[in-house]
Amino acid sequence: MFYHIKELQYRAKPERPDPVYARKLQEVLGGQYGEMSVMMQYLFQGFNCRAEQKYRDMLLDIGTEEIGHVEMLCTMIAQLLDGAPAAELDAAAQDPLLAAVLGGTNPQHLIVSGMGAAPTDSNGYPWNSKYIISSGNLLADFRANLNAESQGLVQVVRLYEQTTDPGIRDMLSFMISRDILHQNQWKAAIAEIEQMEGVIAPASFPRELTVEPATRQFLNLSEGEESSEGSWASGPLPDGTGHFEYVSKPVPQGGAPTLAQPADHQHSTLGSGPYIVNKGMESL
Amino acid sequence: MFYHIKELQYRAKPERPDPVYARKLQEVLGGQYGEMSVMMQYLFQGFNCRAEQKYRDMLLDIGTEEIGHVEMLCTMIAQLLDGAPAAELDAAAQDPLLAAVLGGTNPQHLIVSGMGAAPTDSNGYPWNSKYIISSGNLLADFRANLNAESQGLVQVVRLYEQTTDPGIRDMLSFMISRDILHQNQWKAAIAEIEQMEGVIAPASFPRELTVEPATRQFLNLSEGEESSEGSWASGPLPDGTGHFEYVSKPVPQGGAPTLAQPADHQHSTLGSGPYIVNKGMESL
Amino acid sequence: MFYHIKELQYRAKPERPDPVYARKLQEVLGGQYGEMSVMMQYLFQGFNCRAEQKYRDMLLDIGTEEIGHVEMLCTMIAQLLDGAPAAELDAAAQDPLLAAVLGGTNPQHLIVSGMGAAPTDSNGYPWNSKYIISSGNLLADFRANLNAESQGLVQVVRLYEQTTDPGIRDMLSFMISRDILHQNQWKAAIAEIEQMEGVIAPASFPRELTVEPATRQFLNLSEGEESSEGSWASGPLPDGTGHFEYVSKPVPQGGAPTLAQPADHQHSTLGSGPYIVNKGMESL
Amino acid sequence: MFYHIKELQYRAKPERPDPVYARKLQEVLGGQYGEMSVMMQYLFQGFNCRAEQKYRDMLLDIGTEEIGHVEMLCTMIAQLLDGAPAAELDAAAQDPLLAAVLGGTNPQHLIVSGMGAAPTDSNGYPWNSKYIISSGNLLADFRANLNAESQGLVQVVRLYEQTTDPGIRDMLSFMISRDILHQNQWKAAIAEIEQMEGVIAPASFPRELTVEPATRQFLNLSEGEESSEGSWASGPLPDGTGHFEYVSKPVPQGGAPTLAQPADHQHSTLGSGPYIVNKGMESL
Amino acid sequence: MFYHIKELQYRAKPERPDPVYARKLQEVLGGQYGEMSVMMQYLFQGFNCRAEQKYRDMLLDIGTEEIGHVEMLCTMIAQLLDGAPAAELDAAAQDPLLAAVLGGTNPQHLIVSGMGAAPTDSNGYPWNSKYIISSGNLLADFRANLNAESQGLVQVVRLYEQTTDPGIRDMLSFMISRDILHQNQWKAAIAEIEQMEGVIAPASFPRELTVEPATRQFLNLSEGEESSEGSWASGPLPDGTGHFEYVSKPVPQGGAPTLAQPADHQHSTLGSGPYIVNKGMESL
Amino acid sequence: MFYHIKELQYRAKPERPDPVYARKLQEVLGGQYGEMSVMMQYLFQGFNCRAEQKYRDMLLDIGTEEIGHVEMLCTMIAQLLDGAPAAELDAAAQDPLLAAVLGGTNPQHLIVSGMGAAPTDSNGYPWNSKYIISSGNLLADFRANLNAESQGLVQVVRLYEQTTDPGIRDMLSFMISRDILHQNQWKAAIAEIEQMEGVIAPASFPRELTVEPATRQFLNLSEGEESSEGSWASGPLPDGTGHFEYVSKPVPQGGAPTLAQPADHQHSTLGSGPYIVNKGMESL
C-alpha cells in the first residue's frame, strides 16, 4: 500500500517557459528509457519477487522513489508549457523564434493534454509495458535495471547539454545524481548475486547439456579480422570455464533445410485444382 | 553488404510436429527478448558505430550470426507445425489431446502464416523496434546487450524444460551455448570499456555538477529496514567515489508544486463564461 | 448495409492552404478522441447491441453520421495540404515562414500519403482500436460515449483557437455544434438508463456481496486534508445507499504478502546448482 | 513524493492455484480498463492539475490508492500461478484438466515473467498510455474517470462470475466495492462541476459561434424510425438551451468535394511522363 | 455522407454457437488483412482521391460495401458467442469439450466485449491504421488493394476449411465470392492504369537519372544458382526496357563506410573525461 | 547462415550534413514501406517457403540484398546527422535556418540514438512486424511484394524531390533503380504463377461453392453512376469466368439481424436486479 505527500523529492522549477524543451523532456518521462519505465519495472519486479525479503524491499524502495521522479518531471513539463501560444502560421512569418516554437513543439501539448505532461516520448509515442521486464531471475533483472539506468543517464546528460536554464539544470543534476547512485547500486547488487551464482544468468543449466565448443568460439562472420582484437576473442572467459577461441572462417554445422509440402487445407502454393479438404468431420 | 549460404548454422529438426510448442517457441523468435531483437540491436549498433573499427566489426559479426538464428527458429517452427489439423470443435469433444492442441495453438499459424513462423511473440504480438536500443554509448549499449542475452537465455532454458523432443532440445542446447558465450563476451567487452572509462555510463559528466549526497544515499521509502541489508546500502560505491549511505527516513527536498492557472485558450477548468481568445491574429 | 452520397454533410473548404494546421487537424481525425474513434465505437456498439431496437438504431444513426465526419475532415486536410512545397533546408535559411512550415508539418503528408489525410494523430501515431469500447452494458458504454464527445469537443475548441481561417472555422463550428448535441444526447440516454437501473454500472451485482464500508469510505492517502472539502468526501452517495465517509488516516487491511519459492523449472533466482527438472515426462 | 508500506490494502490470497484464471485476471490489471489505467490516469491528472488544491489532492489520493490495487492484483496473480506445470503435450492426452490448463494459460507467464504478473491484458497485449487521458478540463476528465470505473466494474463483476474460489472472490468483492464508491464519487464530482459550469465540456465556447440547428437536431440516418423513440430525439436538451428535434430524412448541407490535381512533385496518378520538379532550388 | 439500412447485405446466421470459431473469425474482421482493413483503406483512398471522378466513385462504392461486411462479421460473431459459459476450471476436468472451449476462446469476449465482436484479430491484437495505405498513386494503391483481397481470400478459404457449420459456410461463400470479384476488379483497374502509364509505379521518374545496370541485374547473393531458373533472372523485363541479367557473383560497388567521431555533446563512447560542451549559448 | 563484408553495396555519402533530411529519410528505412519491411518480408517468406527451391532461393537472394540496403540507409543517416547542434531556443531567435533545423529534426536523434539511425519512421514511430506478410501462398505474397516495391518507390521518388544534395541523390538513384528492377521481377514472378494457377489467389477454392452472381456484380453503393465507366464495371473478368455486371441499385440480400438477449452472467444492459449466476459450479 502506498502514501503520497505533497512535497516533491527535489525542486522542479524552470526559470522560464520553454515549450520546445518540454517536448524533449518527454523522452525521459515517457520514452523507452524514461522514468515511467524504471518506475514500472522496479514495482513489477518488487511485487513479483519470490527471493528473500531484502530484495523485494529494495526493489519497492527504488520503485517508490521513481513514482516521485515521474511527479517531478510532470511538474517541470507543465511549467515549461506555461505561456505556449495558440498561435498560427502568419505570425510566424515575422518571427523566427515563434517559427522555431511552432515547429519544435508537440501539438498534443496544446490540443490534448491541456499544457500538461503526456505519458509519451518526445515524438508523442505512448509508453507501453514492453519497455519493461520482470523475469523472476534477479541476475537477469538487475542487468536490465543497470541497462535502464545507463541508457537513461546517457539521455539525461544529453538533455542537460540542450538547455542552459538554471532551474531545469538544477533538477537534471539531481536526476543525474540519482542515476549515478542507481548504476552503482545495481552494480553492487549484481556483484552480490554473481558471487553466489556465477556470471551466467540463469546459473542453473547443466554445462554437460551444452554444445561445448559453441560456448567459447567467437565466430568471425565478416571478412577482415578486426574483431579478433578485442577481449571477447581471446583471453579467459569471464565465467571461468576456459578461454575464448577466435574462429576466422566459420562453417555451417546444420544442413540445408527442406520443408514439407504445404498441407492441402492451407490452399498455399502450389495447389493442384479446386478442392475442399474438410468436407465435414470425416476428413479429420 | 551481406551474403547467404543455404546451410543452417546448426541443426533445426524436431523429432515430431508439435503445434503447441511452435506457439511457445515464437517467444524467443519474435518476442521482447527473442532472436529478432538481438539481431536488429547488434546490426543497428554496428551500422551506427563511431568508435574504433574492432567494435563495429564485432557487433556486425554477432549481428550477422543472429540473422542465422532467426533462420533456424523459423525452420524449426515450420516443421513443428507440419500436420496441424484444420480441426473443429466437435472432434475435440472425443479427444483430449486434440482439445489441448486446439486450445494451445496460435490460430494465426493456420489462418495467416500458412504453417510458417510469424514475426511475433507467443501471444501473437508483433515484434517492434522499441525492443532495441542503439545509443552510441558503448558501455550503455553493451549493458543492453548483456541484459538481452541474459533475459533471452532464461527464456530458452525455460522452453528447454517444456519439451523432451530430442530434436528441439538439440537446437536449444546450441542456442543456450551461444547465449552463454555471448554473456561472457559482453562481460569481457564491458570490462574493457569500464577499465578505460569507469563504471558510470556516460563517463563524461563532471561530478562537481551533481548533487553530491544524492549520488551515495540509498533512500528507504518503505517502512521496515530489510533493504538496508544489501550491498547497495552500505559498503564502497563501485565507481570508487565513496560509500553508500543508508537513509532510514528520507524527507522531501522540493516544496509542494503549484501550477499556474490554465491558459484561457485551452478552455480548461475552471473557465469563466463564453469567449474566444484568438479572435484573429491581433490577440497573440 | 450502407449507402454513400457524394455531397458532404457540411462545408469543408479552407480559405487557403495551411500544411502546419493540416498536421494539427489530424488529431481530431485519427487521434485518441478523434472522429475515427467515435465512428468505430458507435458502429461496434450498434452491431453488437442486444438491447431493444431503439438503442441499436440510435447507435447506428450516429455512427453513420460520424463516417461522414471522417469524410469531411479528410476533405479539409487534403485541401490544407495543397501547395505544400517539396522544399529543402537552404531555402528555409532565407524565410522564417518556410522554416516554420518545414518544422511544423508532418513529413508523411508529403512522403507517404500524397498530400492526403492520414489515419493517424497529429504526431503520426496510427489510430488503433484500443481507443474504443463496446461492452454490452449500455450505461457503461454511454458513459464512454459522453466522455468521447467531451474530450473531443475540448480538442476541437482548442483547434478553433489555433486558426483564424474562416473556412476551417466554419467547418469546426459545425463539428462543435454536433459535439454539443451529442453530449446532450448521451446525457439524456444515460439519464434514461439510470432511471431504470440505478447509477452503478452494472446494476446487477448484489450489494450483500460487497465489503460494505469500502463502498462509502473516501481514503485520504496523502498528508493534508484538502480532499475532504469536496462533494466526494461527505454528503449523500449518488446511488442513494448512504453517505460518503472521509477517512483521514487509512490503514491497510491485508497483511504483508509472501510469495512461495520460485518453481525449480523456472530457473529463477536463487537457484541451487545445475539441474533440469523436466528430464522427460516422468517428472510431471 | 511517495511512501510504501509492506501491508496490502486488502487480502489477496486465493484458496488454490489456477493459472487459467491468472490469465483472465490480467485483464483488470493491465487491460484497457484495468487498474494500471486508473492508477496512471489519476496520477497524471493530479500531477497536471491547475485547478484548486482540493481537486489535485483528491486525484492523487485515489491515484495513490490504485497503485496499491495494482500491488494486490500482482500478488494474487503470482499465487494463482504457483504450481503451474512445465508440461508438454503428451501428458495432456491423458488428462482433460491438464489439456484445459495448457490451452487456457498464457505461455508468457511460464516463459517470460517467471510465474509473476505481467503488465499486459488477458491476451498478452501490453498496457500503453493511450488508454488514459489528462486533458486539463476537469469535467471532461471526470467523465473519463466515471467511464473507466464503469467499464472496469463491469469487467470485475464478469470475472467474479468466472470463479468460485473464495479467496479470489474475497478480493474481487473489495475491488467491486471500491469501484462502486469511485463511481459514486465521480458522479458527485461531476455534479459539482456541472453546477458551476453547465453540462457541456468545455463550458466556454460561445453559443453564437455555433451552427444553431445542428446543436439540437437528431439525424435519422438509417431507414426506419425506431431511434425516434428515445429521450435523445425529443424532449428538453439537458443543457437547457431548448429541445431535441428529430429529423427523419436528413439531407446533406455541404456540396460534393472536388480536390485539386495532385502536385507534380508527388508523382501521383495520373502523371504525364518523366520529369523531376525540383531540379535544384530554383524551382521552389 | 452515408446512410444505413437495417438489412444485412447477405445472411449471417450460424447453425449453432461456437465461441472457439468466433475467436478465429476475428482474424478476418479485425486482423491485418481483415474487413476493417479494406473498409478503411478504400474509404481513405476515396476521400483523398485527386484523380478523375470514376476512380473516387468506385473506391467509395467498394469501401461502402466493406462497411457492410464488417457489419455481417460482427453479427455472426455475436451469435457464435451465444451460450458461451462463464465456466471455471474444475468443470473442465470432467469434459474435454469444455476444456477445448476454455482453452481456445478469447477471454476478452466474455470479460470485455460482452459476447460481442471486438475490433481485434484472433489473438486479441487491436486493429491499427498502419495496416492500410493511401498514397495518392493509383497504381501503387490498386496493387495494395489487390494484395489485400488476395491475402484476405487466402485467410477466408482457410477459415472455411476449419468449420462445417452450414450457416457460417453460407456467409463465407458470399465473402469468398466478393473477394474473387474484387481481385478481378483490381486486376482490371490495374491493367487500365498500366495501359496508360506503364508498369512501374510511379511512372514519372526519368530513366536517365537511374543507375542503368541496376535496373536489370538480378543479384545472386546466396551460394548455388537455383534462383537463376526463374522468369525473374532471364527473359524480357515486363516494363519493356530490356532483359533481365543474372549476376552470379555480385560484388559491392560502395566502399567501406567510415563514420566521424561522435560529437562531444553526445557523451558517447569513447569520451575523454568530464566536460560539458554547452556551458551556455556561447558554445554554439 | 549469413556472412557480412565491410563494403557497402553502393555509395552512401552526402555532400553535407542535413539533420532535417535525416529525419525524412527514416521513412524509407523504418517506415511502413521502408527497407526494413522488405528485408524482413522477403526473409520470412524465404525461411517459410515450402514451394520449389528456386522460389526460396530467389526470396533469400533479394532479402539478403535488402539487409545491405538497411545498412546503406543507416550509414547515410548517421552522416546526415554529423554536426547537428545541441542547440537551444534562444539562438533560434536570431537564425531562421537554426529555427528550421530545431523544428524539423527528430529530437530522438540527439537524445536517444546518439546521432545514429533509428529503427523508426519519419515521425519516430517504431517499425513493427505487422507491416509484413508471409502467407505461404506465393501468388498472394508476390502481390504483397509488388505492392511493397511500388509504395516504396513512390516514397523514394518523393524524397528525391526533397533534396538536391548530389550524394543523397546518387544513393537514391541506385535505390530507385533497384526498386524498378524489383517491380519488374515481381511482375515476372506473378505472371509465372498466374500462368500455372490462374489469377485468383488462392486458386484452389471450388467455384461451385461460391455465390455465383456475387463473383461478377459490381455494386453501385453511391448515388451517381460514374463508377460504371471503368473497366471494373463492364467487360470480361480477368479470370476468364465471364463478364462484369454493373448493378446500379443494389438491394440487401440478408434480413435485419436480431441478436439474442444478453447472457445473465455478463451483467449487460438491461439487467433485472441483483444476482450472481455462477454461485458455484452447480449452475454451469
TrEMBL record, chains A, B, C, D, E, F:
Binds 2 manganese ions per subunit. Binds 1 Ca(2+) ion per subunit. Keywords: Calcium, Manganese, Metal-binding. Ca(2+) binds at D57, D61, N220, S222, G224. It comes from the Bacteria. Mn(2+) 2 binds at E66. Mn(2+) 1 binds at E35, H69, E149, H182. Its cofactor is Mn(2+); Ca(2+). CDD domains: Mn_catalase. Residues 222-284 are annotated as: Disordered. GO terms for molecular function: metal ion binding. Belongs to the manganese catalase family. This is Mn-containing catalase.
